[in-house]
Design brief:
The chain has 404 residues and is mainly alpha-helical. It has 3 domains: 3-176 and 252-260 and 370-398, Rossmann fold (3-Layer(aba) Sandwich), CATH 3.40.50.620; 181-242, no CATH class; 281-367, Tyrosyl-Transfer RNA Synthetase (Orthogonal Bundle). Helix content is 59%, strand content 6%. The chain is built from 19 helices and 5 strands. A 3-stranded parallel β-sheet has the order 1-2-3. A two-stranded parallel sheet has the order 4-5. Strand 1 (9-14), helix 2 and strand 2 form a beta-alpha-beta unit. Helix 4 crosses helix 18 and helix 12 (194-210) runs antiparallel to helix 13 (213-224). The protein is elongated. The chain binds tryptophan and iron/sulfur cluster (SF4).
């Protein structure tokens, strides 16, 4: 982990919607596996988010939760590198959601595009509920409670991170002000020691007087590395860098996950709702069967008819899995009718099987040790709760809700 990344916390969640497939793997999980080596990562099962749409069918959630965790572990998410937990086991998310709801204008939620879009898309469900309107705010609470700096999401979720930023800004604006802020901030600077205090002052000056963003970043990293200052002082010093109030809830950045080109068996995007998936734990025979029966360029009725890979979903799989050499072989062979479609599918079948073999093997190990999986999550829940509790304590105190 490099130094800059050490101060950055990544948080992301996934709704438990049953077994994961290759689309999830190429689209999300491979990216998480990479991120876990680069950042302090928190990954969680968003079971309450699933409940916003599955409230009439909530029985399916629990099974999906464990299936999904096994899929994560099988895909290479390492509980030694990333914290894995379940949203509803960290009830602090709900308290922060409630507190944030007090300051969130209704209009902000009503105009999030996913609100109307999803209602349209899931017409068979009644989503005119309070909980569903609050979906993105619950997501904001998920993010802010860990003071995440980066949130890996797909394109469709970027608006939710934007909302989170607005909510954080509003929260800090309303509750970050305190009497004697400057004096308290100056006193906090002194606690860092002479050398660091001087560095902090110089960096702050460079940012405020010359707009030097590099200085701002360096100052933030300096604050992150301080062991001897309280959380409250840290918030003051973050806020003092930029303005005149504490930053209790830092604004996160969306880390856009590169769009995955993983096609399904019919050439459309792989998705459960299209019924075109290969699951992460598909057994090799089933993989072979699904790929062998997959449609190809409709122009190739007979073996002797030439085809066009551009019109064939199998070609899209070659684009994911094959070397340049194999792709040349496909292009040549298809257009000249030199190879048959089954020949063409061969390397893809082998590649998918090779990709899934270690995943299935690891999944099997976890299936055989349900206690191990339970323990990984129990530990993740506890670690997550420690962070969540600390943030909530600050939030309550900033809002004037500390009665002890
Ligand atoms: N809404 C996200 C999705 O559907 C899941 C999610 C819930 C999430 N809370 C989050 C993602 C917090 C990132 C951060 O994919
Ligand atoms: Fe598709 Fe390959 Fe058949 Fe061409 S040879 S139509 S690319 S499966």
């Amino acid at each position: 982990m490099n130094l800059a990344a050490q101060n950055q916390r990544v948080l992301s969640g996934m709704r438990p919607t049953g077994k994961l497939h290759l689309g999830h793997y190429h689209g999300v999980l491979k990216n998480w596996v990479k991120l876990q080596h680069e950042y302090d990562c928190f990954f969680f099962v968003a079971d309450w988010h699933a409940l916003t749409t599955e409230y009439e069918n909530s029985g399916i959630i629990a099974d999906s939760v464990w299936e999904m965790v096994i899929d994560w572990l099988a895909a290479g998410i390492n509980p030694g590198s990333a914290r894995l937990f379940i949203q509803s086991q960290v009830p602090e998310h709900a308290e922060l959601h409630l507190l944030l709801s007090m300051i969130t204008p209704l209009g902000w939620l009503e105009r999030v595009p996913t609100y109307k879009d999803q209602q349209e898309k899931l017409k068979e469900k009644d989503l005119a509920t309070y909980g569903f309107l609050g979906y993105p705010l619950l997501q904001s609470a998920d993010i802010l409670i860990y003071r995440a700096t980066q949130v890996p999401v797909g394109e469709d979720q970027v608006v939710h991170v934007e909302l989170t930023r607005e909510v954080a800004r509003r929260f800090n604006h309303i509750y970050g002000r305190e009497a004697g802020f400057e004096e308290k901030a100056e006193a906090a600077v002194k606690k860092m020691g002479k050398k660091n205090a001087k560095l902090y002052h110089n960096l702050r000056k460079a940012y405020q007087e010359q707009g030097d963003h590099q200085a701002l970043e360096t100052a933030r990293a300096l604050l992150e590395s301080q062991q001897n200052i309280t959380l409250g002082d840290r918030e003051r010093l973050f806020g003092f860098l930029e303005g005149s109030g504490k930053i209790i809830l830092p604004e996160p950045q969306a880390l856009l996950t590169p769009a995955s080109k993983m096609p399904g068996l019919d050439g459309q995007k792989m998705s459960k709702s299209y019924g075109n998936t290969i699951s992460l734990r598909e057994d090799p025979e089933e993989v072979e069967k699904k790929l062998r029966t997959m449609p190809t360029d409709p122009a190739r009725v007979r073996r002797t008819d030439p085809g066009d890979p551009g019109k064939c979903p199998v070609w899209q799989l070659h684009e994911v899995y094959s070397s340049d050499e194999t792709r040349d072989w496909v292009q040549q062979g298809c257009r000249s009718a030199g190879i048959g479609c089954l020949d063409c599918k061969g390397p893809v079948i082998e590649a998918v099987k090779a990709e899934l073999a270690p995943i299935c093997e690891r999944a099997q190990e976890f299936i055989e040790q349900p206690e191990l999986v339970r323990n990984i999550i129990a530990e993740g829940n506890e670690l997550a709760r420690d962070v969540a509790r600390a943030t909530l304590k600050e939030v309550r105190s900033a809002m004037g809700l500390s009665y002890s």
